[in-house]
């Protein structure tokens, strides 16, 4: 089995296990299913406390996911929500339940209710944030507002992922996607992990593990202090010289004091991380250079050099800027003269240092827009997005999608990406029409970078190729290249298997494969023609494999 590239592994699925605060590994499915059940219980308890009569099937659930997640990751989320019994498999028109303050906002939007096929909606986090930003602008008419024709790049920068989408305003609360969403594992949570690594280097990994396992509440206190220190960096003093400190919980200091016989201050002086060194000797207290800076520990605070903090931030920010520059250059023809704004949302966007770096990098090109509470943008937008009938009118497809199938021998020979070796290996003659075909080919439904309208349906017609076949099996694939010709080397997303009806005419009848594009998740159905047309949609059952997407733990 060939080893996949690291970036391809990240697209496959979520972590199989998530570590609890005490270090215990728990099945990811158990965590999410339990969390969904808890949310449902809290919501229904709230309605009861407020004496609001609501049935479970009258509630619509909005689950937000990063736009860069694969179909498999989004499918797992839907699967777990269904296992938690958030909703029934299919519900018709649902009323939108709002409290009075929300009703006022709803009236301003001009939306009273929505019609949906399900109680469960999987929505993309940057799109939710876009709704929030626009609502904030609507509530402040005297300040800057987007105009029809303007484009903005929405940067949803959270703890796990950096998630970017680019939209064009086409009307009041209507946008279309200009380029395919992009991003990567460059969230602020990785800075926290690096700081924990520094603690492990200073105090010993074994001691840190023991503290985490035996005193999980105190360990959580330490993590919160690291998070608070990270958020304060560059806030008051806009410089990368000097020291920036982390408050040390009393229990942590006492625990570590018992583990060390030597002086902890001297241990800090030996710290080395990303080229930064600590110097505990008082003679060198004010000695500063690009490589040697003081790292101090006094049982109340661990002080790390600002230059080290900046490097930890830059490891993520530089990747965000690099990928953004790459996508802007690639799509320069599409975005030139249209892209005017960059919007920063998500927890990482609250960082003064990140805001400074983004503004400096794009100061001559784009205006940077930051909502009042960027960390809540996705949540606030999701609550409203469920009531907007068509906020995103079209999306750009990130991959080429299609199904495996046979080409006629003439079609295969004419295709520039179907090798002669493949034709010789997979050619066959069907026993129904006595025609020559080539199997293992890739029949394209939509190519990468194509624009698809929301609810757009693409249909392809298939015929039965063998009298012996009892089932129609459709294998769904995606590819990173346009019209790959053959399915070899493409990503298998799943298979749909439908039995042929008893009255299916091998010569005359056909079956049809439909792709439903433009939604947050791609749907595939098979329509079979016998005496009647019967359309079957099969929910893919997603399972963990050896490769995982490390973005949530």
TrEMBL record:
The organism's place on the tree of life at top rank: Eukaryota
Annotated keywords: Stress response
InterPro entries assigned to the protein according to its UniProt record, in alphabetical order: ATPase_NBD
Protein name per Swiss-Prot or TrEMBL: Heat shock 70 kDa protein 12B
Species this protein is from: Reticulomyxa filosa
């Amino acid at each position: 089995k060939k080893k996949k590239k690291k970036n391809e592994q990240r697209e496959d699925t979520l972590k199989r296990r998530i570590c609890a605060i005490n270090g215990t590994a728990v099945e990811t499915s158990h965590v999410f299913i339990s969390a969904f059940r808890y949310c449902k219980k809290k919501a229904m308890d709230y309605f009861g406390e407020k004496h609001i009569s609501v049935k479970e099937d009258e509630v619509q659930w909005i689950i937000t996911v990063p736009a860069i997640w694969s179909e498999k990751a989004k499918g797992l989320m839907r699967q777990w929500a269904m296992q938690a019994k958030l909703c029934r498999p299919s519900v018709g028109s649902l009323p939108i339940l709002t409290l009075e303050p929300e009703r006022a906002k709803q009236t301003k939007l001009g939306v009273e209710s929505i019609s949906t096929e399900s109680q469960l909606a999987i929505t993309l986090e940057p799109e939710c944030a876009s709704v929030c930003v626009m609502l904030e602008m609507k509530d402040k008419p005297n300040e800057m507002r987007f105009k029809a024709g303007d484009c903005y790049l929405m940067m949803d920068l959270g703890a796990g992922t950096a998630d970017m989408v680019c939209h064009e305003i086409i009307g009041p609360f209507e946008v279309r996607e200009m380029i395919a969403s992009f991003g990567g594992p460059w969230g602020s949570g990785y800075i926290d992990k690096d700081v924990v690594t520094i603690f492990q280097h200073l105090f010993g990994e074994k001691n840190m593990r023991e503290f985490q396992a035996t005193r999980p509440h105190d360990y959580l206190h330490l993590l919160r202090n690291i998070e608070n220190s990270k958020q304060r960096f560059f806030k008051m003093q806009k410089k990368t010289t000097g020291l920036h400190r982390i408050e040390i919980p009393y229990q942590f200091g006492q625990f570590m004091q018992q583990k060390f016989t030597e002086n902890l201050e001297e241990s800090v002086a030996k710290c080395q991380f990303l080229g930064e060194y600590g110097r505990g000797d008082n003679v060198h207290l004010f000695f500063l250079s690009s490589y040697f800076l003081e790292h101090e520990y006094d049982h109340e605070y661990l002080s790390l050099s600002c230059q080290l903090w900046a490097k930890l931030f830059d490891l993520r920010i530089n990747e965000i800027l690099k990928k953004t520059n790459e996508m802007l250059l690639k799509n320069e023809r599409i975005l030139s003269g249209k892209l005017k704004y960059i919007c920063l949302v998500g927890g990482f966007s609250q960082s003064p240092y990140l805001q400074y770096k983004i503004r400096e990098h794009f100061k001559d090109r784009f205006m940077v827009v930051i909502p009042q509470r960027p960390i809540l943008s996705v949540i606030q937008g999701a609550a409203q997005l469920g009531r907007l009938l068509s906020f995103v009118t079209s999306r750009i497809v990130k991959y080429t999608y299609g199904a495996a199938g046979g080409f006629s021998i003439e079609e295969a020979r004419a295709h520039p990406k179907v090798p002669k070796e493949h034709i010789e290996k997979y050619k066959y003659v069907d026993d129904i029409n006595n025609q020559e075909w080539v199997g293992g080919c890739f029949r394209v439904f939509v190519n990468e970078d194509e624009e698809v309208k929301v609810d757009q349906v693409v249909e392809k017609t298939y015929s039965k190729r063998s009298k012996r076949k009892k089932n129609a099996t459709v294998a769904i694939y995606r590819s990173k290249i346009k019209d790959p010709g053959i399915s070899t080397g493409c990503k298998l997303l799943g298979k749909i298997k439908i039995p042929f009806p008893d009255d299916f005419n091998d010569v005359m009848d056909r079956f049809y494969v439909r792709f439903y594009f433009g939604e947050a998740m791609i749907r595939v159905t098979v329509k079979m023609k016998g005496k009647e047309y019967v359309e079957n949609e099969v929910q893919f059952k997603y399972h963990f494999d050896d490769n995982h997407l490390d973005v949530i733990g």
